[in-house]
């Protein structure tokens, strides 16, 4: 079966997920997570991807990125994936892939960006690993509420619109995440990601894909509404 073409548009945010093969563990210790983030930063800078958010779960990773070129996302993920496989196999005296096939990716409607970032930073809570987002040391939530300052992370323009000062933005983000996300929204994001389809409104889909409407075929029930 032919591979499904990815929808990647330079300058448009992408939600990306990669899983461990057979749902196996990817990170056994904090040093593993740190080196993964270090190499993510290097690959993103080398291949022109802006990294907005992340969540490192035991057996999968969520990222929110904006590629600047058509091949930025692919090159970033390929470089990071190959490098981490070599490290992981050396550390654990094994060989072969550690990934469950290709990474999944979903283009995100700009008006849905903050909802997608919230979905990612709530992942440890939704999975039952933490009781609150601030309890996780391996998501970007701490950066967005001012507890960490990883300068390589790039705030999206919609995050900047949350307030006129860093404090205002941090408070607004903490409140937004604390509200949580409705089940239908989580379901939509997950479905789009698993199928590598855009998570966009009908209006935005018509604007972006007027010549190729099949690229945004998923029709969700319920909101989000603008």
How would you describe the overall organization of this protein?
The longest helix is centred in the middle third of the chain and has 21 residues, at 72-92. The chain has 226 residues and is α+β, with helices and mostly antiparallel strands. It has helices spanning 30-47, 72-92, 113-121, 123-126, 141-144, 157-160, 166-179, 183-194, 202-208, and strands spanning 14-19, 49-56, 60-67, 104-107. The protein is globular, with a radius of gyration of 17 Å. Strands 2-3-1-4 form a four-stranded antiparallel beta sheet.
- Net shape: globular
Q: Into which percent range does the helicity of residues fall?
A: 40-55%
- How many helices? The count is 9
- Total beta strand runs: 4
From the structure above, extract its key features.
226 residues; alpha+beta; 9 helices; DNA binding
How would you briefly describe this protein structure?
One of its GO terms (molecular function) is DNA binding. With 226 residues, the chain is an alpha+beta fold.
List the helices and strands and how they pair.
Elements: E1 14-19, H1 30-47, E2 49-56, E3 60-67, H2 72-92, E4 104-107, H3 113-121, H4 123-126, H5 141-144, H6 157-160, H7 166-179, H8 183-194, H9 202-208
Antiparallel strand pairs: 1-3, 1-4, 2-3
Protein name: Transposase
Domain Transposase IS200-like: 9-123
InterPro entries: Transposase_17, Transposase_17_sf
